[in-house]
Amino acid sequence: MAMSGIRDLSIIATPPSRRLAVKTFVRERDEVTVKEAILREIMRGGQVYFLHNDVESIEKAAADLAELVPDARITVAHGQMRERELERIMTDFYHQRFNVLVCTTIIETGIDVPTANTIIINRADNFGLAQLHQLRGRVGRSHHQAYAYLLTPHPKRMSKDAAKRLEAIASLEDLGAGFTLATHDLEIRGAGELLGDEQSGQIQTVGFTLYMEMLEQAVDALKEGKEPSLDDLLNEQTEVELRVPALLPDDYMPDINTRLSLYKRVASASNDDELDELRVELIDRFGMLPEPAKNLLTLARLKLSATELGIRKLELGPLGGAIEFNENAPIDPAFLVGLLQSSPQTYRLDGPARLKVVEAIKENPDRIRFAQTLIEQFENHKVTAVQA
Fold first, then answer.
1. Residue 382 gets which letter from DSSP?
2. pLDDT per residue over 131-173, tens digit each?
3. How far is Cα 230 from Cα 227, in angstroms, rounded to an integer?
4. Domains and CATH numbers, the chain
């Protein structure tokens, strides 16, 4: 939504003053690492979160810690406790009556204990990237250096995605890295149905490029206070077909990827200056333009002019053709009447918004010149909104 202009995107990347980044370590679990991390924090007067996200075995985990670090004052907190009991435990921990809190992910949000500056996450491979980032954010909330230990089983027991998540969280420990972490999370998990039927309806039917163009036009209309109309959006797509070869030949440009890229640039050109620059670039890179390449640029130029004139479709072949106008095409009706009266053998009105060309134009260059002359006449007799 931000990329299409519907919503604004802001990134909070400036940390509070004196805030330090949390040093993050990914370690295979061993008792020495756990004991060393807890003792270092306790000896400097701080507190420790030991996250064990399994209520059934959390009491055993606390008992094992008490045996490992006898000097620690340990308490337990999880979401299945009574509300009053949980409140009392968290208040006691905040006031430093305990210095190790064995807990579940109940601390994930809303906990701000400035003196708790070490967190040890057991089985970190079971957590998502965003969850690990939130949990790591529970420490380092003062000017003290904080530490996060992500304990894992043996690497062979972890999934590939879990290893990628842990690698990402360890490599991005700078302050304000949340947006970058979210990008990594999208890469690991995939974008899901962002462009599929479930999210975006029939996007596959119209194609992504046309879908984005229509979305951009609708957003622009809303910003101008207009009501976007699907008919108006579709009417702006002009089709020009003169039955002439218009392409970048294989012998002129052998690489198919380069050809596709340049076709896209020609189709996306929004004015004559961009087409002139493309012509110069093509001559500079590949040599003088062959006739089909010249026709491609000419048709692109005609399409730009036809779009400005409100022409929905311009079709000419060896036996004639037709020009279809949009409902609000800025063409002077008096000029069209004069054209029909002066050249009845060439033009005929076929409905309220369709001018038929009945003259046979067999040669390709003649058809191109005929279309250019006709478009030029329409431009010379274009009416403004005030006149209309």
1. B
2. 898 899 899 888 889 999 999 999 888 988 898 888 888 887 7
3. 10
4. 23-189 (3.40.50.300), 238-380 (3.90.1150.50)
